[in-house]
From TrEMBL:
The keyword Hydrolase appears for this protein: no
Alphabetic keyword roster: Acyltransferase, Transferase
Domain of life (superkingdom): Bacteria
Family, similarity comment: Belongs to the acetyltransferase family. RimJ subfamily.
EC number: 2.3.1.267
One Pfam family linked to the record: Acetyltransf_3
GO CC entries: cytoplasm
Source organism per UniProt: Actinophytocola algeriensis
Name of protein: Ribosomal-protein-alanine N-acetyltransferase
């Protein structure tokens, strides 16, 4: 029993599964990979997020302040440092998504709880220049497989607004099951919004999500 608990909690002073570089994988949009965020991502991150305000703002948690300031290159070092600190403490696995080597979005695993839960949430965004080509699905598949194997998690949850058809399609393609509706769950775009809860556990995907995407011809290992 002691051995089992220590496995679930991870070795003392180490956070299983972090840091990590996952991929490459060929999807419709190009060569997809995910890696840890870098301080030097500031300019690319800011350019995409400022350009894509209308694409992103309706689905993201409300942040105090102004969109352009919050997403300026000077705002990135603070965010990068917060993400790095959470990852080093084993509370998060934050990834930047790249397509053909260029920043295309982010996929983040947060609120990692170990012990008898071994659970976390997963969220993602992809810039308008890269949508519609399997990027979010491929990036999430890489990260889910990694979380269920190297990071030792058992369950991942994704919450999504019922109006967010593209994201619901991503979760459905991945095999996440809808488990319920959380009323007025999250402050998004200035109001408390209902969210559907989707979830996946290791038992659902014994061979992994990437293997299934490859078998279905939706991705190719490189
Ligand atoms: N209605 C239904 N399906 C749609 C629509 C629509 N209006 N628009 C696109 N789709 C489908 C696409 O056709 C595709 O499905 P298909 O492969 O069967 O054709 C699917 O949605 C999108 O799959 P991907 O190409 O893998 O995803 P993409 O790289 O385009 O990224 C994402 C999708 C992340 C939702 C992107 O649009 C985005 O960043 N949106 C803004 C931010 C956001 O909503 N983030 C998610 C918040 S919820 C969460 O994180 C759990």
């Amino acid at each position: 029993m002691a051995e089992r608990l220590s496995h679930r909690q991870g070795p003392v002073g180490r956070h299983p599964g972090w840091p990590a570089r996952l991929g490459p994988l060929r999807v419709g949009a190009g060569v997809l990979a995910v890696r840890k965020p870098k301080l030097s991502d500031a300019a690319a991150w800011s350019r995409i997020r400022r350009r894509d305000r209308r694409h992103l703002e309706a689905w993201e948690p409300t942040a105090p302040g102004d969109w352009d300031n919050n997403n300026a290159a000077f705002a990135w070092p603070g965010q990068w440092s917060t993400l790095r600190g959470l990852a080093r403490r084993g509370m998060s696995l934050p990834f930047v998504i790249t397509v053909d080597g260029d920043v295309a979005g982010q996929v983040t695993v947060g609120n990692v709880v170990r012990g008898s839960l071994c659970s976390a949430w997963i969220g993602y965004w992809v810039g308008t220049h890269a949508v519609g080509g399997g990027v979010a699905t491929g990036a999430a598949a890489l990260v889910v497989d990694h979380c269920f194997r190297e990071a030792g998690l058992h369950r991942l949850e994704a919450t999504v607004r019922p109006e967010n058809a593209p994201s619901i399609r991503v979760l459905t393609k991945l095999g996440f099951r809808e488990e319920g509706l959380f009323r007025r769950y999250l402050d998004v775009a200035g109001a408390w919004r209902d969210h559907l809860c989707y979830a996946l556990t290791t038992e659902d995907v014994p061979s992994g999500l990437v293997a299934r995407m490859v078998a279905e011809g939706r991705a190719e290992h490189l």
